[in-house]
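Worked Example 4.2. Read the sequence first, then its structure tokens.
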Amino acid sequence: MESADPAVHPRPTGRPEAWHRLGAGGFLRDVVLGSSDGLVAVLAFVAGVSATLGARRTILLAGLAEMFAGSASMGLGAFLGSKSEREFYQRELAREKAEIVEMPDEEREEIRQIYQKKGFSGGELEMVVDRITENKDRWLRVMMHEELGFAQRTQTSPIRSGIAMAVAYIVGAAVPILPYVFLEGPAAFGLSIAVTLGVLFAVGAVKAQLTQRAWWRAGLEMSVAGGLGTLVCYLIAKGIARL
């Protein structure tokens, strides 16, 4: 059995590490990014359209078109990005595995240098090097993490990532559009802004779980960013309409 030596296998010390081990960190990241992008992008879009077009049906159709186009774009981007990341990881894994077999002395020296920089020396350093390199799987994992900065268990499925991003975008984008289903004119626009900024605050608070920041600060930043984006788009659209 492998040792639970913390120098080789750091123990999880908190909830965020548990998310990473289960691959939930990447999934939550996709959901947060997708929903926040949907909220901000469609609110800003609706603001611009509302500034130039007064018909509720036109605003609804334009908002829905942007929602589905943005969802497809975000989902495809997440899929391709995750797929490229996984392919790169597999290529580096194969290269590192070959180097351990073909040039073990050089790779062993790399392990020694890595842990020497961590403060190990003398017999203690050699014991750590021996412990790691006596098992090729462990050796490979340490090299991938310490030398290349990879963490295999944080990777998510490209399909799962794409679907999560696309669905989250639609959910987020639906928020600023919904008021126009029941209201029109300034009332719909005002409610759309109020509800969307409130949801953005909630999304920012959830995002704080990933960044380990104060939830209220992250929520406030998201709301302010969304509000500024909406204001800029509204003013630009107003200016263009006057040309």
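Now turn to a second chain, presented in exactly the same format:
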Amino acid sequence: MAAEDDKNLIEILENLNPVDVAKYMNFVSAPQAGAIATFAGTTRDTFEGKTVLELRYEAYIPMAIRCINMICSSARASWNLHSIAVAHRIGTVPVGETSVFIAVSSVHRADALEACRYLIDEIKAKVPIWKKEVYSNGEVWKENSEFLERRSELGNKDAGCCGKKVEIKEHTKKACCGTKVRVDDQGRQD
């Protein structure tokens, strides 16, 4: 695990500065790496016809870093990877800026490409990072589709992110990651 940790760079960025893509690309670059695959998740300006002003992220940082490290270990078990870099911003991310950036290097492109997709899908499904979309006419906390799909794959729509049964009380779901409350675009909880 120690050697693996030397080839992973995982950062949760708590400031308003943009993600330094070159930093993560340089981290994964190596003479033996014939491929570097990247993913950049950026804030788009519309969602389902609504004007998006910004995204706001919150995270339980120590757990988020542990979860991302576990996902990186799982990727290394499935693909022959050299280095992995993951950066995720929290706080406000304006339209056009990067929220999450992943870079993966490997000897061959298939490993890097497949691992990169796996990493973003698993991060969105499992890591305790929460996103609020702020619109011109309201805001809403969003559940990632990967989280919802994973929950339904477990055969239980009331399962939390770790697969545990959750208690539903007064329209609030208590899960292993904490309480998730859905808020509509008028600011009402449901």
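Notes for the reader: The chain has two domains: 2-142, 156-190. The radius of gyration is 17 Å.
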